[in-house]
Design brief:
With 145 residues, this protein is α+β, with helices and mostly antiparallel strands. Helices cover 30% and strands 40% of the residues. Strands 3-4-5-6-1-2-7 form a 7-stranded mixed β-sheet. The model has no long low-confidence stretch (mean pLDDT 95).
């Protein structure tokens, strides 16, 4: 087995971990500071995406104002470091607008760019994706047109 983690610039691993930490702490500036300007967020299994730092800013503004307050708890299950990014698997307990609390499994792949994160691939069920991306949902573009 090849140990890819040793060939990855430590600043990229640090950026990914700072991103996760800042997001968990509700730190908008810290979260945004970890992203490249041309970042791409891909959502699966719905195969939708958004691109660019302006859309990322709008996503995180909504996330911190409307999504994070409804997270009743979360637990990181695993983390893997690879040549292209860091994969983080979570169970997230979320209080939905229908009043029900559900646990969602989320796999976030924080992708490495040149100096910061080039974005993220998020895998979870559509119910959670719609909760996370709320008012931006209609602006997401198909990944595979």
């Amino acid at each position: 087995m090849i140990d890819e983690a040793h060939s990855i610039p430590p600043k990229l691993i640090d950026a990914a971990r700072r991103h996760s930490s800042a997001e968990a702490d509700g730190d908008m500036a810290g979260t945004m500071d970890t992203l490249e300007l041309d970042c791409i967020y891909d959502l699966f299994p719905v195969a939708l995406r958004f691109t660019g730092i302006d859309m990322a800013r709008r996503y995180y503004e909504n996330y911190f104002a409307n999504v994070a307050p409804n997270i009743a708890g979360y637990k990181m299950l695993a983390e893997w470091v690879g040549a292209d990014g860091i994969n983080q698997e979570y169970d997230v307990v979320y209080c939905h607008s229908d009043g029900l609390t559900r646990t969602h499994r989320i796999l976030g792949i924080l992708t490495f760019g040149k100096d910061r994160l080039s974005g993220e691939r998020i895998y979870t069920d559509e119910t959670m994706l719609r909760a996370m991306f709320g008012p931006l949902w209609s602006e997401l573009a198909p990944i595979f047109p």
